[in-house]
Amino acid sequence: MLSSLYYLVPVLGGYAATSFYLLKNPHILHKKKRLPFHCRHISHRGGAGERIENTLEAFDNAVSNHTHLLELDCQLTKDGQVVVSHDQNLLRQTGHDVNIRDVTYEELPPYKDSLEVTFLPGHMSMGRDHHMPLLEDVFQRFPEMPINVEIKEENGELIKKVSDLVKRYRRADRTIWASMSDQIMKKCQAENPDMPIMFTPRRGVILLLLYYSGLLPFVPLRESVVETYMPSIINRTYFPHNRLMRNPFLVTLQDKLFMRKGLFKHLQDRGIQVYLWVLNQDSDFQRAFDCGVTGIMTDFPSKLNDFLHRQEDKHRTPEETQHTVTGDGVEMCRY
Asked: Which residues are listed as membrane-spanning (predicted)?
């Protein structure tokens, strides 16, 4: 027994030291991914807390608030049109109990006058635009804007049509494949491998296992983006349908395991961006950035924009801020 330990201890010690060194220096084994965008401000469904979700008005509002990435969802209509909508069944969004796949694009009902914000229960969003746009409408309106396209159903025709639109508008490098399903993600990547992809939940669990086993620095990763919830918002602004996920002990455990600066730093050193959703409060913004995430997905683009500006102001030196006085005697700042 002692002779076995004599060999085992140095081996484990060497493994731990090597793993730690490579965790801090991933460039030794891995070529850094080079996405053409770096996103701190991400608008969930275009900013579902300030305008009706997934409408052109919402996307316009997000862009006017300096968002770096639009997040949206896609479905396919009966006549084969790729429409931007989170739900397949339209009861929540329109009050009509119909499925998008069962109606043509022209037959789609308009959104309700107001919608409850999914990640801030009790808060209603409103807007002038109640029309569900085509994905092509969004690509045409925002040709240079990075867009995160979530595929909601395992539908080969939908995946192909999204890919065809991405190719037509030459935006593969700035359009992210997103899905919660491994099967859907495999089909998306096979259809258009030039588009960056996110970690699915199952792959996220594997990522954590690799991190805590010390294997992560040795393993290549095909994904370019981590998109996941911040566990501490569960039972405050996010209420999962699965009751087990709402268990306070499991929420705390998830938070302890996932919110690790060392993990986020390693991923970003490998060019993998980390986005947390869906955060709608300043305290959550602050915690996420303090933990070293790349970006935050929010329903309130103007609120996150204001927060980021305040953070920038805190870090400005006196030389970077020039104070002037208006004719009314009000001190203004110019940058």
From this structure: 6-23, 204-221
